[in-house]
Specification:
The chain has three helices and 20 strands. It is an alpha/beta fold.
Length: 220
């Protein structure tokens, strides 16, 4: 923790028996990679929080994290085309992903194809105008979010995103969740996010909300 680095940190393929603790680290690699942990195996948690700051891509492609990815009070910046603020492409996180409490991102948060065993927290943050959240083909257990933390319209990608439930204090009404779906880009109609939402509402016993979602699907 409390690392200061000017340039790229390569941890590709590393095997860590406990935690990867980068609390308070200051990583600067503008237009490049701040840290690369592709195909890493980390038995415990990854801590990118408590004042963590990166200028450059934080990448955990195909990584396996045995517990949580904690990013509360972390700042992630990468707005150059072709790079991501966070790249978790097809990563496996057996615990939870924690993006809350002063979490800040400028750039693309890429969770395409990621598998999150427990919670995905997106709660209590103020998203930047260029924060993009890409959850296409990701799978998670429980979504714990709030409307104020959602990316702006056009910056949310949900096609083939699957989840089992919403946490009980997250928005669980059809009006809010249809507005959530409408944060997706409008250049292409994608039916799966509506069908997934209706499925979860039915599992929760919210039959009227499920019906409203399917009506919105047909209208859209």
């Amino acid at each position: 923790s409390n690392i200061t680095a000017n340039g790229q940190i390569f941890l590709t393929g590393i095997n860590i028996g406990l935690n990867l603790d980068c609390d308070g680290a200051q990583l600067e690699s503008p237009n490049g990679f701040a840290i690369i942990c592709d195909e890493a195996t980390i038995a415990g948690s990854v801590y990118l929080c408590n004042g963590f700051k990166s200028d450059g891509e934080v990448r955990f492609k195909d990584a396996k994290i045995g517990a949580d990815l904690e990013c509360d009070n972390g700042q992630f910046t990468e707005t150059n085309a072709g790079h991501f603020a966070m790249n978790l492409l097809e990563a496996e996180i057996r615990g939870s992903v924690v993006l809350w409490t002063n979490f800040f991102a400028a750039g693309n948060l890429d969770f395409k194809g990621a598998n999150v065993g427990h919670y995905f927290f997106l709660n209590g943050i103020k998203p930047s105008d260029n924060m993009i959240l890409d959850l296409r083909s990701a799978k998670i257990g429980c979504l714990f979010d709030d409307g104020k933390s959602w990316p702006k319209a056009g910056n949310l990608f949900l096609d083939n995103f699957t989840y089992n439930e919403f946490y009980n204090v997250a928005p669980t009404d059809s009006k809010s969740r249809i507005e959530w779906l409408h944060r997706q880009p409008t250049n292409q109609f994608l039916p799966q996010p509506y069908e997934q939402l209706a499925l979860v509402f039915r599992k929760m016993g919210h039959q009227d909300d499920a019906a409203e979602v399917m009506i919105a699907k047909n209208q859209d």
